[in-house]
Specification:
Length: about 400
């Protein structure tokens, strides 16, 4: 069985393509993000589906208030054009389009990042459809064009994507990534564009139409995305297969049966809650009223954050628990800790949640980002339209 492996490094590294035991590897980078950059990223990921001519289940653009924490985001390199131009992108299950920073964009936010220059590609083809997307306090404009896109060593010919032509608003300050590669469904793609993973399926390069994520908790261990298979060495126990919500088959949405704090139900989901499993978001998101209740119930001294109660999500009748070490964000004076990492002496803390209010029938919505996913091996199966979750196997645990 052919298996394509995308590896996430915890330190910066140059692009290398290797093959070993039938695995094609692409090193990825884990980057720390500033406060403005994190706000930019979250605003973009939450509202990127709200294209001017396309519907979105995220109809309520909740303003996001972020603590001044340095968060992290995983990015990986893809090749565009011939010869290839290598770009760092975010692999995002919460969107479908492929946006790439372009030489066509003259805004300072574009010029400060690596860009794609279609004039240097022999395989570029102009399409010219215009696309405009609102990001709460900003707007991004682009042109749909096509070129060869190479991912995990597989060249996708005549792949359409959006070349960014303009970025307006504070949400685009400090960005270090050059694009966002959407892994959601084609029903949300602009102008009928075929998303990257759909193109991989159409190429017949995969024997199993899945991709899976593993997030390491240790700097000496690699994280990884595997395209076309799973890594059974990265999890333990059974895989819990959770069917997608079929009436909103645009996103990787699942049903959450209940949410517990310290083993007690919070009563947030009397009729079930909807959960978006989103690899493009570091934090967790919750309805603002639920989040207010959660803050009141976890109103304790930050120095005792390790004694905070666990938070559990009941999914498909199984319990998926995250500890305060995962969901509490800490800092000591001006030293901001990455999620899951904590200073010895903590002076301030916050829950790793953001408010997001989506009205019925599409809500209430919870977004399960990397804080949740770092504890579980996640498998996104396009054949069975389901998500598999298993306990991640981390070193030194």
């Amino acid at each position: 069985m052919k298996m394509f492996l995308i590896t996430l490094w915890l330190i910066s590294c140059t692009f290398i393509l290797t093959e070993a035991k039938d695995l094609l590897r692409i090193p990825l980078i884990r980057k720390s993000l500033s406060r403005n950059e994190k706000q930019s990223l979250i605003s973009l990921l939450i509202t990127s589906h709200d294209q001017l001519d396309y519907p979105s289940f995220l109809e309520s653009k909740s303003k996001i208030h972020m603590k001044n924490y340095a968060n992290t985001q995983y990015v990986g390199t893809v090749g565009i054009g011939s010869p290839e131009q290598y770009m760092d992108v975010i692999f995002d299950t919460g969107s479908s389009n492929f946006f790439i920073n372009s030489k066509l964009c003259k805004d300072s936010t574009c010029q400060s990042r690596k860009w794609y220059d279609h004039d240097k590609s022999e395989s570029y083809h102009h399409i010219g459809f215009t696309l405009e997307v609102e990001f709460g306090t900003g707007v991004i404009s682009g042109l749909i064009n096509e070129d060869i896109v190479t991912i995990a060593g597989v060249p996708l010919l005549k792949q359409r994507f959006a070349e960014v032509t303009s970025e307006k608003g504070e949400v685009f300050l400090d960005g270090k990534f050059s694009g966002i590669l959407g892994l959601a469904f084609d029903s949300m793609a602009a102008f009928g564009t075929v998303p990257i993973f759909d193109s991989l399926i159409d190429s017949n390069a995969l024997t199993w139409n899945v991709f899976s994520f593993y997030y390491s908790l240790n700097e000496d261990e690699e994280s990884e995305i595997i395209v076309g298979d799973i890594d059974q060495d990265k999890f333990e126990g059974d895989i819990v297969w959770v069917p997608l919500i079929k009436d909103l088959l645009n996103y990787w949405l699942i049903e959450i049966d209940d949410i517990l704090l310290g083993g007690e139900s919070l009563g947030f989901c009397p009729y079930g809650c909807r959960g978006a499993v989103d690899t493009g978001t570091t934090l967790l998101s919750a309805p603002s009223d639920s989040l207010n209740t959660l803050y009141k119930k976890i109103n304790q001294d930050c120095e005792e954050y390790l004694s905070f109660p666990d938070i559990s999500f009941i999914i498909q009748g199984r319990v998926f628990t995250i500890s305060p070490k995962d969901y509490v964000l800490t800092n000591t004076e001006e030293n901001f800790d990455d999620p899951g990492k904590h200073s010895e002496y903590v002076t301030e803390c916050s829950l790793g949640f953001m408010p997001i209010d989506v009205p019925p029938p599409n809500g209430p919505l919870w977004v399960l980002g990397d804080i949740f996913l770092s504890n579980f091996y996640s498998i996104f199966d396009r054949d069975s339209l389901s998500i598999g979750l298993a306990k991640a196997k981390h070193k030194n645990q």
